[in-house]
Amino acid sequence: MTFYQAAITVLRSVGRPLHYKKITELAIKSNLLSHIGKTPEITMAARLLREIERSPRESLLIRPRQGVYALRNWPQAEENSVEVLSPETPIETQTSPDASETEVPSEEVSVSSEEVKSSEEPRRRRKRRKRKRRDEGTEGTEQEAAPSIAPLRSDELVLSVEIIKCLREKSIPMDIAEIAEHLSRSYPTVALTPTSILLAIQADNRQRRAQYRRAAVQVDAQGRCSLSEWSLSKVTLKLEARLYDCIRQLRLHAISAISARLAALKPELWLQLMVLLVKQRGLLLEPEAERLELGWLLHGQRSMGLGRASTWVLVCEESSFDFNTLERLQGLLRERDLGAGMVILNGEFEDRLVEDQRLAVEFWDRKLVAKHLCELGMGSSQQVLVAQLPEPAFFDALVEFAGEPG
Question: Which of 116, 193, 267, 277 has the lowest CB atom count within 10 Å?
Answer without folding.
Answer: 193
